[in-house]
Write a structure and sequence with these properties.
single chain; about 750 residues; alpha+beta; 6-stranded antiparallel β-sheet; 5-stranded antiparallel β-sheet; 25 strands; about 25% helix; Carbohydrate binding domain-containing protein; Galactose-bd-like_sf; CenC_carb-bd
């Protein structure tokens, strides 16, 4: 964000000073009597018994057929000791502490379906909240993890949210153990912790308490989880075992229209399986990179279960293939082929195979495909194990290691025919009109696909979605707005200035005006009004040169607000342009490595004295503590700043729009590079998600489209809104081969080339 304000905590000091930190859990040493567990006043609730809080209760109805059902969250349910953790019902939950507390559910409709969160209102004390008895009671010999999402409802001020256990021992003593304490605001906040029960005797009963903000402030709670830490040892010969109870385990789309997702419609074991859908070819399916598990002269066994989707009217083939690259090139090797019956029953498959690369094994992937186009299927219980290989394994004819043995899918015209897998179906191969043309060709006349500096073509790939990026209402500085500005008064009221800004944006950058119209209010005012007031108080009078700095500031900050409005507890929306606002999955707050890891990396000196560094990647900056969700959101907003700087370059003579956008293009590369080496699981989580790949590449295309156009402008040398002394440094820094490789990795993961 362009202006970042963070208030230091100035309340609950007395409360917090009584806490001591033990590991990642926060504990209170004194024994406390917990209201709602032991009744000591008729105004307080019993947690059990005849008296109940007036709360809404409904039976849990799980529907998976379409998005009208409940939102599936298998990772939340697996091993969770909390009943109704997602508040699909309020069974097991009780309002807690005083009798006036009101517990209701807020219904939201997301892409995944119906989602609920609970709202605690009519609160009079900071410990008014929710309580649930944990069944079975917690053990003193086990370790647990805790997680819950808390936020304030319609409040701009920061408060504290708290989670605690109320424990009753065999002597009848009730005491409290705090699990997590953190500041919360109207933005989503995930409280987490790992703990062991602080035992004072034998634990007879255990309760979870969620509370914290000052009285009268409404508390919103969602996605509550307490689970045992899994310390089980695993068979060293088992390389992986995927049951899809929590996620898709890294399986990627292979010539597939949709990413394979976990689904509760079918399951061989547990409650979920991998759903392979959006298939428009027989070879559309799922793949898994397995290079890291393979070595020469090893024998492997692949186990899995497969099921055809309901409604399939004839048996279908299923093919398991290994694709690998060695010093001699690319090879396809059949692992197993079979027929899956129409009857709704799972088919179990187990097949041994050996990999015998010639030279170094550079890449290996398992593919599962085979049914006819538009036939969906499910996979479950996939396991890969290894054992010592026997001599001559893999040497027999037909095992896939010799040319022409018939093992390559679709020899001659389909994947594995010696050309690139998927030949005939990738953008740029000529099978779709205009997809092999230059960027912009095939668009409407006057869409601005020419007259750039050539940088867009250099920094993007014409075969991928970054090089094919278009905007239906691209910024256009050639539109005359003199009629709008003819009566502009630099000292006009904010309401008048806001109307002028809106009209100008509607002409030259319509999506900026759309952001302002859809953004939520800020501090009780319309977002545009609030930020134009800030601009006026900062710069005083707003002549046209300053007016569009105010427009830039407003769109940038309101863009953050719109992103938050469209996001959920575990998703992030990125409103990029009209009709394009990817909503991608995210981890909880502060679950990504902080941006300050970039502060002194190997690339930081390439642009010395970049003034954005001190705000965004400085270890002492609040923003520097944020991670992936921050860098990508800021990059989107700075892409709008760049578009506005270009749209009004004839009025605005100074600023840093280009430096801001280029900084974040650079930060994205550096952050991915950092994850690649230090957090490979998060790196694969991002690159393995089609939504994130599309968001990164479309954002990359947008930034370079506008930077390309900006550099083609003939501006006076004293203008530095779109160019500065750092522009050349930024471009050179971004073009570092190891950083460009990260963008290329996103393209390859998206099967662009």
């Amino acid at each position: 964000m362009k202006i970042k304000e963070v208030s230091s905590p100035s309340f609950y000091v007395n409360l917090l000073t009584s806490f001591i930190v033990l590991g990642s859990a926060v504990q209170v040493e004194a024994h406390l009597i917990i209201p709602g567990v032991v009744s000591y006043n008729s105004e307080h609730y019993y947690s059990e018994g005849t008296q109940k809080s007036e709360v809404e209760t409904q039976p849990l109805i799980m529907t998976y057929e379409d998005n009208n059902g409940l939102c599936e969250k298998p990772a939340l349910s697996r091993g969770n000791l909390i009943r109704q953790p997602d508040f699909n019902s309020l069974d097991g939950w009780r309002g807690y502490y005083t009798s006036g507390v009101n517990v209701t559910r807020n219904k939201q409709t997301k892409e995944c379906g119906i989602d609920y969160q609970v709202v605690i209102s009519s609160r009079n004390n900071y410990y008014d909240g929710l309580i649930q008895k944990i069944k079975p009671t917690l053990s003193t010999t086990k370790e647990y993890t805790f997680k819950a999402n808390l936020k304030l409802n319609k409040s701009e001020e920061k408060e504290f949210g708290l989670a605690a256990l109320a424990l009753k021992n065999d002597l009848g003593i009730v005491y409290c153990q705090y699990l997590a304490v953190d500041q919360i605001s109207s933005n989503d906040k995930t409280l987490t912790g790992k703990f062991k029960v602080n035992a004072l005797g034998e634990i007879k009963q255990s309760y979870l308490l969620l509370f914290g903000p000052k009285g009268s402030k409404e508390l919103v709670i969602d996605e509550v989880r307490i689970a045992e830490v899994d310390n089980n040892t695993h068979d060293p010969n088992t390389l992986f075992k995927h049951d899809f109870e929590t996620d898709n385990a890294g399986w990627l789309p292979a010539w597939l229209n949709e990413v394979p997702v976990i689904s509760g419609m079918q399951a061989k074991s547990g409650g979920f399986s991998l759903y392979v859908k959006g298939r428009d070819h027989w070879y559309s399916g799922a793949k898994l990179p397995i290079t890291q598990w393979f070595s020469d002269k090893k024998k492997y066994t692949l186990n899995l279960s497969a099921l055809l989707s309901a409604g399939t009217n004839q048996a279908q083939k299923l093919s398991l293939q290994l694709y690998y690259v060695d010093d001699k090139g690319a090879h396809w090797q059949r692992i197993y082929s079979t027929s899956i019956p129409v009857a709704e029953q799972w088919v179990d498959i187990a097949s041994d195979f050996t990999v015998k690369p010639q030279g170094t094994l550079k890449k290996a992937e398992i593919y599962v495909f085979g049914p006819e186009a538009n036939v969906d299927f499910f996979l479950d219980d996939i396991k890969l194990t290894q054992q010592d290989a026997k001599p001559s394994d893999g040497d027999k004819p037909g095992d896939g290691d010799k040319p022409g043995d018939g093992d390559k899918p679709g020899d001659g015209d389909k994947p594995g025919d010696g050309d690139k897998p998927g030949d005939g179906d990738k953008p740029g191969d000529g099978d779709k009109p205009g997809d092999g043309d230059k960027p912009g060709d095939g668009d409407k006349p006057g869409d601005g696909d020419t007259n750039g500096s050539g940088l867009f073509k250099k920094m993007t790939s014409a075969e991928c979605i970054d090089g094919q990026y278009r905007e239906p209402q691209r910024a256009n500085p050639q539109i005359n707005i003199e009629d709008i500005l003819s009566n502009h008064n630099p000292n006009a009221a904010v309401s008048v200035l806001s109307k002028t800004v809106t009209k100008a944006l509607e002409k030259r950058y319509p999506f900026g005006a759309e952001i302002l119209s859809q953004a939520p209010d800020s501090s009780g005012q319309k977002c545009l009004t609030y930020w134009m007031q800030r601009a006026k108080s900062t710069w005083g009078d707003l002549p046209t040169s300053e007016l569009f700095h105010g427009a830039d500031l407003s769109v940038h900050e309101c863009g953050h607000g719109l992103s938050h409005k469209l996001s959920g507890w575990s998703t992030q929306a990125l409103p990029l342009t009209k009709g394009t606002a990817p909503v991608c999955p995210v981890r909880g707050p502060y679950e990504y490595p902080p941006l300050y890891n970039l502060q002194h990396d190997n690339f930081s000196k390439d642009v010395p004295n970049n003034h954005y560094d001190s705000t965004y990647i400085n270890k002492g900056s609040p923003v520097g503590k944020q991670g992936w969700e921050s860098v990508i959101d800021e990059a989107v907003q700075y892409s709008h700043s760049l578009a506005i700087g270009y749209a009004f370059h004839d009025y605005t003579t100074y600023g840093s729009d280009a430096d801001g956008a280029l900084s974040f293009a650079w930060y994205i590369q550096r952050y991915l590079y950092f994850l690649h080496d230090n957090y490979p699981e998060i790196y694969q989580e991002i690159l393995g998600n089609a939504c994130w790949r599309e968001a990164i590449l479309k954002l990359w295309g947008k930034i370079w489209m506008y930077e390309d156009l900006a550099l083609a402008l003939d501006e006076p040398s004293n203008h530095d809104n779109l160019t500065s002394e750092n522009t050349t440094l930024f471009i050179k820094a971004i073009q570092r081969p190891e950083l460009m490789a990260e963008i290329e990795a996103v393209r390859k993961a998206h099967q662009c080339n």
